[in-house]
Amino acid sequence: MIETHTQDKTCFHEPLPLKREPCIAVPTDSSTIRLCQSGAFRTVQAEMRFGQAVKIHYDWRLSRVLDDDGNVLDVILWDARRTAFTLAERLSLLQASRLLPETRTLLERFPEAIPDPFGAMSDPDWPEPEEGEANLLQEATTILAKRGVADAAGNIDRRLDMLVNAAAELRSAWTTNEARCVEWAGLFITEADLDNQRTQIPPAIADASKIDEAADALGVAPPAHVPTEIEWEALRSHASVVVASTQRLQEHEDAIREIASGYIPSLSALMGPLGAAKLVVLAGGRERLARMPSGSLQVLGAHAAMAAHRRGAPPPKHGAILFSMPQVSHSPRWVRGKIARFLAGKASIAVRVDHFDGVPWSQEQVDEINGEVDAIKAKFPKPPKRG
Fold this sequence. Notes:
Elements (H helix, E strand, L loop, with lengths): L1 E4 L3 E5 L9 E5 L4 E7 L2 E7 L6 E5 L3 E6 L4 E6 L6 H12 L5 H9 L4 E3 L2 H4 L8 H22 L3 H33 L12 H7 L3 H8 L10 H35 L1 H7 L1 H11 L2 H5 L3 H5 L4 H8 L9 H4 L2 H4 L6 H20 L7 H17 L8
Helix pairs in contact: 1-4, 5-8, 5-10, 6-7, 6-8, 8-9, 8-10, 9-10, 9-16, 16-17
C-alpha cells in the first residue's frame, strides 16, 4: 500500500497493476471520492482535513470511513465472487464481532478510526441492498441457521432440555390416560384392586380378547356386566395407548438418566439423575446453574409461590424439584425449610464440582450429607412454639 500526502489531500492506492481501470468521481457534501476498480475490491482517493476524528461503518457489502460531519473519506466494496457460502462465512465473522478484510484494510489506513459495527444501521445514507443481494442474504442466513441447529446437537444442555420437556409432556398425557383406563376397567371388573393392581390393569386389558380374560389375568371373578363389542374395542385401544406411553416414558427417562449421570455426576448422585436434569433445564444450562446462588437454586420451580410472594404472601421455602427429594418431602413440615436450604447449598457445590471438572462425589460423601439431614430432623423433633 502506498500513501501520498499533499497540502489538502491524502491518497491511498495499490501499487500500479499491469492494467488499471478508470476512476469514477463520486461527489459528497464537502469532498470528492474517487473510486478506482482494482482486483477484488475498490480503493478510494478522498479529500480530508487532518486532525478530525473518524469512524468506520461497515456491513457485509462494504466498509466506509467517515469524519465527524458524516463525510465519506474512504470506501472499500466487497467485489469478490459472491455466493451464499462465502457470504455465510462473512456473516459468521460479523456474528463473532470480528472485522472483515475490507474493514481491517481501512483500519490500517486510518489507525485512529473507531470501527462501529452498528453504524451502518443508523446511517441514513447507507445504500439499500439490491434485489439480488437480498436474495443472496436470505440464502446465506438459511445456511447459518442450519449450521446453528447442527451445532446445537453437540450442546448437552439443549439435549437435556429436549428430553426433560418431552418426558414432562409425555408424563402429563400418560397420567390422564392411565387414570381413565383404570377407572374405565374398574367400572366392569369391580373385584379388581385399583390401587395395588394399578400397573397390571392396562396390560391385562390390552392383551385380552374379551373382558373375562382380563379379569382372569388379574385373578378376580368375571364381571357381572360386560361391555358391547365396540365398547370393548375402544377400552382395549385406550389400554394399548397407555401401555405404549408407559414404554415411551421409560425410554425417555432412561435416556435422561444416562446423560445426566455423565454430565452432572455429583448432582445426580445427590438428587437423582432426573431431579438433577430438571434443575439444569430450569436454570437454563449447567453453567448458569453453577453460577447461581444457592438461595436462587433453592426456589427453582416455585414460580407461582414467588409470584404470590411479590403480592405479599410468605416466601417459598423450596421449589418443586427440591420438594420431590424424599429428604424434604418425607420430613416434618417445620424442618422442610431448613433441610431444603441445606440441600440447596450442597447442590450448588455439587454442580460447581461437575462444571469446573472437579472429582465427582462418591456415594460415601452423599451418605454423609444424608446423615446431616437426619441430624437436622433429630435436632427439631417438635414444631416450634408460636409466640
